[in-house]
Amino acid sequence: MFRQAAAVLAIVTLATTLAVAPADAAGVDLICGGTNTATFTPGLTLTAQTVHIDAVGTLTSCVSSDAAITSGTYTASGNGTLSCLTGGHAGQFTISWNTGAYSTIAFTNSVAVRPLGEVVVLATGTVTSGEFAGDTYTGTFTLSTCSRWRASPPAPR
Predict the structure, then answer these.
(1) Which residues face 19 on adjacent strands?
(2) Residue 114 sits in which domain range?
(3) Which residue, of 55, 71, 89, 111, has the fewest CB within 10 Å?
(4) Per-residue pLDDT for 155 more than 50?
C-alpha cells in the first residue's frame, strides 16, 4: 500500500505562455513567455481537494500590438478543487507592464495530463480592465513538481 507523499506547497512552471486576442478574433494583441511560482493552501496531493492559490510571475519576450510592451510582472489568486492530476480553479490576476500600464484578467483553469506525463494547466479568461480590456486570454502552464509525481509514485511506508 502506498501512502501519499507530503503535499506540494509550491510549484514553478517550466513553460508559461500567455496570449491576449481581441474579442472579435481579428488577431493577437499580445503573446509572452515567462515563469510562474504558485502556492497552494492546503498543498496539492494526488487526491482532489478545495484549495486557495496565490501566484507571482514574470512575462518576458512579449510581442504586442503595443510595441512598447515587452515584459511584465503579475500577481494572481484563485480558488478551486484541485489535485496534481485533475481539477480546476477560477480567480483573477493583475499584470503590471513595463510601460506602467496594467491589465486585470478574470480566468478559469483546468488541469490536463499530457501523454509524456507532464501536468499542464490550460487557462482561459477575459481582460476585465486596463490595457487590452475586452480581449480574451489563453495561457498554458507546465507544473514541474506535479510532473515528478507522475514519473514515480510515492515510496511505500
Answers:
(1) 31, 138
(2) 8-145
(3) 71
(4) no
